[in-house]
Amino acid sequence: MKKRRTFFLRFAFSVLFLLTGSVCLLLWFFGSAFIGPFPYKNQPVPKDFPVEAVTFKDEAQTELKGWLVRGEQGKGVVLVLHGHGGNKSLMLGRVKFLNRAGYTVFVFDFQGHGESALKSVTVGYEEARNVRAALALLKSRLPGQKIAIIGPSLGGAALLVKGQVIEADTYILEGVFTTLEKTGEHRIAQFFGPTMGYILAPFLVAQTRIRLGFDAFLLAPIESVSDLKAPVLVIGGSADPFVFPEETQALFDRVSAPKELWLVEGAGHFDFYMFVPEEYERRVLEFLNKYL
After folding, report:
1. CATH number at residue 228
2. How many of the other CB atoms lie within 10 Å of CB of 175?
3. pLDDT at 245
4. 191 assigned to some structural domain
5. Among the four 99, 150, 198, 267, which has the fewest Cβ within 10 Å?
6. Between these two residues, 2 and 7, which has the higher pLDDT value?
7. Is 24 among the domain residues?
8. How far is CA 57 from CA 108, 129, 131, 228, 284, in A?
9. Could you tell me which of 182, 184, 181, 242 has the C-alpha nearest to residue 216?
């Protein structure tokens, strides 16, 4: 009887150990999917409008690659960021319509993306340094011009790192999560259901300290967005599985500057310009013409 009890105890502990190990490996895999990198070297430079290829470095000496398209003098500058796993080539639709409207446009690859240095993706934390370097470049080359920033997803999160909010003259935030833990919860839930998402999300985001060297609480745009002092257009998808519409609404509610909200009907966590290009152009240009 004692041997049988010992056997079952050993068996139970073995199963528990295997389950725990499997969960840890699963969370590590999810973390790796966030961290990247996502290279796309030798991106073809557009030939249908004048593009200046630009190489610059941030304060950590991370090499970044971008494209500058000059517009009308005094019209203003739009810095177009990209989302997680993206690159500057995917933002060319925005670059073109903004430049047609007269704006100078700058787009670049974040670290760990496209043609920029193959460092880890930090979901906004180190990318904030990339943005500051891009702004410094634009201010040195185009002194006195107002600057708007379009920040989809990762790009928007990079503008809103706690204690490091990026200053600009106008902001457009697209599909920006409220906290890293909440969007991690939703992503896990897509595979394993909401209960497991709720349970495992804290363990997923805890990897930021272990693997990336910073605390996840710094990536909480809902707590930083009120620090923005310039007009903000908040855009979200009504069917976004990673940033629920009520979370987009909550982010909007926390903005203290002049603000507008657009929930794109039927859109998920997607490129809103590709989803509704004509309406996107109209709304964004109206906002920029009003505030920039």
Report:
1. 3.40.50.1820
2. 29
3. 97
4. no
5. 198
6. 2
7. no
8. 11, 10, 10, 25, 29
9. 181
d(C-alpha 55, C-alpha 64), whole Å: 6
Tell me what percent of the residues of the chain surpass a pLDDT of 70. 89
Separation between Cα atoms, residue 6 and residue 19, nearest integer Å: 20
What whole-number distance in Å separates Cα of residue 292 and Cα of residue 280?
Answer: 17
Measured distance CA(179)–CA(12) in Å, rounded: 37
132 in any annotated domain: yes
For residue 155, the SS3 value is helix
C-beta of residue 57 within 8 angstroms of C-beta of residue 85: no
Of 103-107, 157-161, 196-200, 239-243, the one with minimum mean pLDDT is: 196-200
Q: Write out the residue range of the structural domain in which residue 42 sits.
A: 37-179+219-291
What's the pLDDT band for 17 if we cut at 50, 70, 90? very low
pLDDT, averaged across the chain? 89
pTM, entire model: 0.90
In a domain, residue 77? The reply is yes
